[in-house]
Amino acid sequence: MASTKKTAVVTGAAGFLGSHLSDRLLAEGYKVIGIDSLLTGNVRNIEHLAGNPDFQFIKHDVTNFIFLPGDVHLVFHFASPASPIDYLQLPIQTLKVGSLGTHNTLGLAKAKGATFLLASTSETYGDPLEHPQKETYWGNVNPIGPRGVYDEAKRFAEAMTMGYHRFHGLDTKIVRIFNTYGPRMRLEDGRVVPAFIGQALQGHPLTVFGDGSQTRSFCYVADLIDGIFRLSQSQYHEPVNIGNPSEMTVLDFAKAVLRFTGSEAPIDFRPLPVDDPKVRQPDITLAKRILGWEPKVGFDEGVARTIAYFRDFLAIPS
Ligand code: UDP
After folding, report:
1. What global pTM score does this model have?
2. Contact 249 CB / ligand 1 (< 6 Å)
3. Is residue 50 over pLDDT 70?
4. Is 273 a pocket residue for ligand 1 (Cβ < 6 Å)?
5. How close is the Cα of 83 to the center of ligand 1, in Å?
6. Which of 78, 95, 178, 242 is spaced 20 to 30 A from 221 at the CA atom?
7. Full residue range of the structural domain in which residue 83 is found
C-alpha cells in the first residue's frame, strides 16, 4: 500500500538543528528527505536514522539545482555555515547558500506546491540598538564586516522568501533563531557553548572574548525545534523570533560552565571579535501569541544535558 505520510525536505539535515528537526518530523509522522553538502554538517548527527524507511539522505550542495522526484509537502531550508569562525573560513559559501540556496529551495517548494520555512537568525538584527529585539526592528548590521556574509545572506533570504510569498503566493514562514545549544553541536565550531564546555571538560582555559560583559540568551534545542515545528503548521507568514529570553553575560555563562562541570580551569580573556553584538535577547511575545509557544527547558537542565553529551563525545568519565 502506498504511504499516506507527508514528505518534508530538510536542507542542512546533518547539522545541529537540521538533525534535531529531522528527528522531530519523523516523530510527527513525516517522511524526511535530508539534504546536506557535509561542508559543516556531519553524518554522525544522523547515523541513528540509517535504515529508517522514512528517512532518506542525499549529499548535495543546494546552491546547485535540486532535483527530487515525487511529492513534497514541506521544505525547511536550514543549510548554512552558522558560527562566526565558519563565516570567516567559508564567506563565499555562506553567501551562496543564503542566496542561491534559498532561491533553489524556494523554487523546489514552488514546483511541488509545498510550504516553505526559512531558518533565519537574530543576526538580522546585527548589533541591536533596540533591546530586547522585536520582529518589527530592522536591525543595525555592518554589511561589509566579517559577519556581514552571514547577516546579509540571511537578510537577502528573508527578502527572497517574502518575494515568493507575495509574488507567487507561496505558503512561506520565517523563523529568526536566537542562540541555541544542545547535543550535536560541533565541539570545534567556535561557538561559546561548545567552546566553554569542551575547554572546561578538558581543563583548558575558558576563552572569554572581550571583558565578557556582552550578553546572549540561550535556548535549549528541543524548545527551539518545538517552536519551529509549530510555526511550520501555522498560517503566519512574517518573521517570528524563537529563542529563550533568559539573558546572561558571557562571563556569567563561563562561570556557570565551570560550576556545572566542577572544572578548575582558569578564564583567559581574549580580544573581542569585530562587530560582536553587545546584547541579544528575543522578545517572544509574538511566538507566545500565535503559536502558544514558550521555552520549557531551564538553563540548568539544558546545560547539564549538553555537558553529558560532550563528556560522552570526549569519552571523559563523569
Ligand atoms: N565567545 C567567547 N568565547 C568563545 C566563543 C564565543 O567569549 O570561545 C563570545 C562571543 O564573543 C559572543 C558570545 O560568546 O559574544 C556568543 O558567541 P557565539 O560564537 O556562540 O555566537 P554569536 O551569538 O556571537 O553568534
Report:
1. 0.97
2. no
3. yes
4. yes
5. 9
6. 95
7. 7-181+220-242
- Ligand 1 atom closest to the Cα of residue 195 is 8
Asked whether the beta carbons of 75 and 117 are under 8 A apart, the reply is: yes
Query: 179 near 15, Cβ under 8 Å?
Result: no
Q: Please tell me the distance between residue 34's alpha carbon and the centre of ligand 1 in angstroms.
A: 29
Active site residue 87: no
Q: Domain with 229 in it: what CATH number?
A: 3.40.50.720
| Grid cell locating 40 | 559543516
pLDDT (tens digit, 9 = 90+) per residue, 206-244? 999 999 999 999 999 999 999 999 999 999 999 999 999
Whether 42 is covered by a domain: the verdict is yes
Would 141 be classed as within a structural domain? yes
How far is residue 64's CA from residue 176's CA, in Å, rounded to a whole number? 25
Phi, psi (5° rounding) for residue 33? Answer: -105, 110
Span from the CA of 69 to the centroid of ligand 1 (angstroms): 41
Nearest 5°: CA angle at 273, between 267 and 278? Answer: 85
Strand 215-217 and strand 247-249: pairing? Answer: antiparallel
Query: What is the Å distance from ligand 1's center to 192 Cα?
Result: 5
Q: For residue 107, is it within any domain?
A: yes
Does residue 67 lie within any of the structural domains? yes
CB 254 within 8 A of CB 190: no
**Shortest-distance Cα residue to atom 14 of ligand 1:** 192
195 lines ligand 1 (CB under 6 A): yes
Q: Give pLDDT tens digits for 109-159.
A: 999 999 999 999 999 999 999 999 999 999 999 999 999 999 999 999 999
Give the residue carrying C-alpha cell 556531519: 42
**Domains held by the chain: number:** 1
Active-site residue identified among 150, 164, 181, 220 = 150
Paired residues of 268 in beta bridges: 207
pLDDT recorded at residue 2: 63
Place of cell 517572544: 284
